[in-house]
From TrEMBL:
Molecular-function GO term, any one: methyltransferase activity
Name used for this protein in its record: Class I SAM-dependent methyltransferase
Keywords: Methyltransferase, Transferase
Keyword 4Fe-4S part of the UniProt annotation: no
CDD domains with a match to the protein in the record: AdoMet_MTases
Region feature (Disordered): 153-172
Lineage: Bacteria, Bacillati, Actinomycetota, Actinomycetes, Micromonosporales
Length: 218
């Protein structure tokens, strides 16, 4: 039976404390996800929201490319390290760090780019994607990177093992079809809808990812 998780503040604080204990350098040196550069390299930098920013690799990368970033996470330990890393990278003036629960917090404005990478709040995963999609400005971009549902990865011949060295919980994984079905064609133009398998140094199990990029119609 798959272990069930409550993705609340206590869960994520424990996760980041454990990550720091197990891989003390990872929170300082881990690069941004590779899809971020690929999917945003044609965009003109503007305002960006990183929903569930964790240790800040994606937010810092965006800031280094000229974006003005609002980076939100529920875990203070992750945000503290992210802020330190931004200062070390010389981009602290381009990132605003916000400690908040994304199931309750809402921005006061919309953004030219809203992105999330493996974020799992304490609400249904697809409902979370629908929630953050509402924060994209007309003409803006939504970029979702999530865990591919385990059964889909297996059926695709990719085998087992993903996420943090194991299957992500069912409630934290999604199918590509489910994400794209939630983006109404009258509102969104989908430009990327892909499944990927990739490996990471020091991690035995491959990652099985879902990547969706869409533009909100003006």
């Amino acid at each position: 039976m798959t272990e069930q998780h409550e993705f609340d503040k206590d869960y994520w604080e424990r996760h980041w404390h454990q990550a720091h204990h197990d891989r003390p350098g990872a929170m300082s040196t881990s690069p941004a996800h590779p899809y971020l550069a690929r999917e945003t390299n044609t965009l003109v930098p503007g305002s960006a929201l990183d929903a569930g920013c964790g240790a800040g690799a994606e937010a810092i990368w965006l800031a280094s490319q000229g974006w003005q970033v609002t980076a939100v996470d529920i875990a203070p330990v992750a945000l503290a390290r992210a802020a330190e890393r931004a200062t070390e990278s010389g981009v602290s003036e381009r990132v605003r760090w916000v400690e908040a629960d994304l199931t309750a917090w809402a921005p006061e404005t919309r953004f030219d780019l809203v992105t999330t990478h493996y974020a799992h709040p304490a609400m249904p995963q697809l409902a979370f994607y629908d929630r953050i999609a509402g924060w994209v400005a007309p003409g803006g971009t939504l970029l979702i990177v999530g865990h591919l549902h385990t059964s889909d990865a297996t059926e695709a011949g990719h085998g087992h093992g993903q996420g943090h060295g194991h299957h992500p919980p069912d409630e934290a994984s999604v199918t590509l079809a489910d994400i794209t079905a939630g983006l109404d064609s009258s509102t969104w133009e989908i430009s990327t809808a892909e499944e990927h398998r990739r490996t990471m140094p020091g991690r035995e199990a491959p990652l099985h990812d879902v990547v969706v990029r869409a533009t909100r119609r003006p």
